[in-house]
Amino acid sequence: MKYDIIIIGAGLGGLIAGAKLSKEGKRVLLLEQHNRPGGCATNFRRGDFTLEVGLHEMDGPSPRDMKSRIFNDLDIFDNVEFIRVPEFYRFMNGRYSVTIPHDPAEATEILSGLFPGEINGIKAYFEQILNPKKKPSENDRQDKSLGEFLDSIIKNDDLKLILLGNLGYFHDDPYTLSLGYYSVAQGSYYKGGASFIKGGSQKLSDYLAGYIRSHGGEVLLNHLVTGFNAHDNKVTGVVYKKKSGSGAGSMEAHADEIIANNAIPNIAELLPAEYGMELKNEIRDIPRGASLLSVYFGFNRSLKELGHNYYSTFIYDSSVKSQADILRNNRDDFSRRSFTFVDYGQIDSGLAPAGKSVGAVCCVDYLADWEKLTRQEYDLKKQKGASEFIERLEKLIPGIKNTIEYYEAGTSASVKRYTLNPGGEVYGFAQTPSRRIIESFKSLDNLHFASAWGKTGGGFSGVIFGGYLCAVNILRKRSPQKL
After folding, report:
1. Which of 76, 320, 470, 480 is the most buried (most CB within 10 A)?
2. Run of H or E residues at 205
3. Longest Cα pair distance anywhere in the chain, in angstroms?
4. Do the Cβ atoms of 3 and 29 come closer than 8 Å?
5. Beta pairing, strands 223-231 & 194-197
């Protein structure tokens, strides 16, 4: 079969690209190996509970947010409901308990009251976050790390940790995270607030898949791409198969342009040997991001009844005294590892029936800590981790153990199994100060990347931007006079 565009992977980047291209009249084929669209933007059901896989809060969408333009273009606002999140986050480390609002002026006032000797540093932080430099001055390096920047403007280590409360949204170590990347991403939360998709992120993914179909495209779930065909420096098509059931033999589809919404390291394995080796060499030295471990909870009541009134709480273990301790702690025992607790019951999330609620614990995780275990060792370690977090939640919210009707843990190995990211990386390549941006593969000029591994990075906003920009670039390439 011949198409205008073939998209490999139905993560948000692939879905957004497919929706835009199909809207503009292109014949699209989207192939997804999982049984549902969305990648990390998915839900799963357990009894009364809809459990959210990936979304805690999405920055914006606000009037000046590029997502608003994209959502208006694809009629998303008319079909998906966004619920505003009340506060940015609550931070706790045994020494401080601070609630950070989305409003930067209010946040500045709160932090200045707690740390009066650091007012200049606090102002410098928000100046950087809200007005990141477009181009460095002659005296500046191209980029620096977030940790280096904080050390240069602030002395108090606890203040730095408070500002780094939601570091796990981007990376595992402030000393290897690009200040420029962080500033744009974090600044969006402070400029436009944050939202949750009512009913869970699957609502957005399902809508986009339906949009592609309604505009003449095909979305095939449970279909795995096993290879590329290439000739004369162009990808000519893909080889794929149905993962299970009847008709599981190999099939081929051809297109003028191919969009890879899957992990770039996986693309290198699928390409013909010559091109695959070239791509492997191109990405060999690019660091990869971390993964996440999550424990999903269904509660038999709202946690507000227990006196809990915070949407997202970031708990840093008291042993984390400075930025330098964060990376080490991310591999610490689960009884001490810093984590996030999201209580979706604080908003009208649509994830549980009346009188019940859902929540999730999330922490940084690494596949290397799991992949050499036997199945029995893996299950025991996962259960031990879930139990440790339940005990820690009980200390945070007394009585919560008695409200747990259901819980389930997912590790970096789970992320790898469902997304095929080789190390379970949820954010793709690490956004380091020296990062090289991979937007396309020069040797195959009709192979495009639109995923967390691409130009705009990971997270919901990153992949949405990446998918849309990829589609626009293809449209300009194919019909420049119309754009």
Report:
1. 470
2. helix 202-214
3. 69
4. yes
5. unpaired
Q: What are phi and psi of 153, to 5 degrees?
A: -115, -15
What is the Cα–Cα distance from 127 to 423, expressed in whole angstroms? Answer: 36
Question: Are 131 and 188 spatial neighbours (Cβ–Cβ below 8 Å)?
Answer: no
Which among 67, 36, 327 is positioned nearest to 173, based on CA atoms?
327
Hey, what CATH topology would domain 89-197+288-418 get?
Answer: Polyamine Oxidase; Chain A, domain 2 (3.90.660)
Q: 214-259 pLDDT, tens per residue?
A: 999 999 999 999 999 998 899 999 999 998 876 668 999 999 999 9
Residues 6+ apart with CB under 8 A from 67: 58, 60, 61, 461, 464, 465
Report the 10 Å Cβ neighbour count for 11.
29
Alpha-carbon distance of 71 to 76, in angstroms, equals 5
150/321 Cα distance (integer angstroms): 15
Q: Which run of H or of E encompasses 266?
A: helix 264-270
β partners of residue 45 = 50
Give the tens place of pLDDT for each residue, 41-51: 999 999 999 99
Encoded tokens for 270: 């699928």
The DSSP symbol for 46 reads E
